[in-house]
Amino acid sequence: MANLLGALQHLYCNEKWSKQTEAIIHKTVNTGKKATGRTGLNLWEIFVLAQIRLCLNTSYDQLLNLANYHKLLRGVLGVEPNDYTTGHQYSRQNIYDNVTLLDDHALKEINVLIVEMGHDVFKKKETTALRLKTDSFVVETDTYFPTDYRLLFDSGRKTLELIGKLHKKHSFKGWRQWKDIRKKTQRSLQRV
Questions:
Q1: Looking at residues 172-183, what average pLDDT do you find?
Q2: How far apart (Å, rounded) are the C-alpha atoms in residues 55 and 42?
Q3: In the chain, what are the domain boundaries?
Q4: DSSP letter assigned to residue 172
Q5: 178 burial via Cβ count (<10 Å: 0-12, 13-18, 19+)
């Protein structure tokens, strides 16, 4: 959440991107309404709460708790971050009514702006474009991930093989069926 709040702070401090974002939100939220728009939340608060809800995948109850009691979030929202008792308190219905006004189309437009802002932030030189390197080559292999069951089986299998070698040399009692024990152990692993 700290990374998200840092990105929102950068967006707010950069006038170029904040004005474009505000225009998209204003166009979406105030459609068919008076110029005064919503009650209780300004455009920035609606945008921040919508981003928090989407990025953290929280319910409106959790969002209400964060909006009222999370110090950093209250600072980004522009309300008193240190005084929870006498400061601005949000209501669940007010948050729900306002955050649901942002539709998918507006969020996609804002996403494009944020990607452009990221290109500006992380671009090394003015002349070079941002390049990303990925490894997208997929090969089907017969490798397995070393889970605790698999590691336990491997250690037991190797122990039984060593017992088998020792049994051939010294022929001690009780271990002539070591191969059968190994097969039973392997079947137990496959059932898990």
A1: 84
A2: 20
A3: 2-122, 148-191
A4: -
A5: middle
pLDDT tens, 128-163?
Answer: 565 666 665 666 766 666 677 788 888 888 998 898
**Which residues lie closer than 8 Å to 190 by C-beta, 6 or more apart?**
none
pLDDT (tens digit, 9 = 90+) per residue, 30-48?
765 554 445 678 888 888 8
Residue type, 118: G
Coil, helix or strand at residue 103: coil
Grouping H, G, I as helix, E, B as strand and the rest as coil, residue 77 is: helix
Asked if 154 and 147 count as a contact pair (C-beta separation under 8 A), the reply is no
DSSP 112-148: HHHHHHHHHHH-SSSSSPP-----------------H
